[in-house]
Write a structure and sequence with these properties.
Blueprint: H1 6-15, E1 20-24, E2 42-47, E3 52-58, H2 61-68, H3 70-78
Length: 111
């Protein structure tokens, strides 16, 4: 059995220190996916290397995304992005060819 050296495991674990996650604050056993209740408040937690610890609080999904992904907010505001190139002429490989339908045969023919 190939086991990972302890030093590599420690490097992998240390790389995740400081990672943030958001946990919706909902009652009962309701689903905890972010898309289910976008207006629900969220607890923001930070990984300290051993456990998730409280880091902050957000009132909605939009505010949570601003906290978790700050680089996406600054990049979107600073540049509109690359210009889209027009489609090249032709049908493209992903499009299927139009198939010619065989003429419908009547039941009286060929009997």
């Amino acid at each position: 059995m190939d086991e990972e050296p302890l030093s590599e495991w420690a490097e992998r674990r240390d790389a995740k220190v400081g990672q943030l996650r958001a946990v919706p604050i909902v009652s009962g056993n309701s689903p905890k996916g972010s898309h289910v209740s976008p207006d629900a408040p969220r607890a923001i937690e930070r990984w300290n290397g051993y456990a998730w610890e409280p880091y902050g609080f957000a009132t909605s999904l939009a505010e949570t995304k601003r906290v978790l992904f700050p680089e996406a907010n600054t990049a979107a505001a600073s540049s509109p992005g690359p210009a889209r190139q027009p489609l090249a002429p032709g049908r493209g490989r992903h499009r299927s060819r139009r198939r010619l339908k065989a003429p419908a045969r009547s039941l009286t023919e060929g009997e």
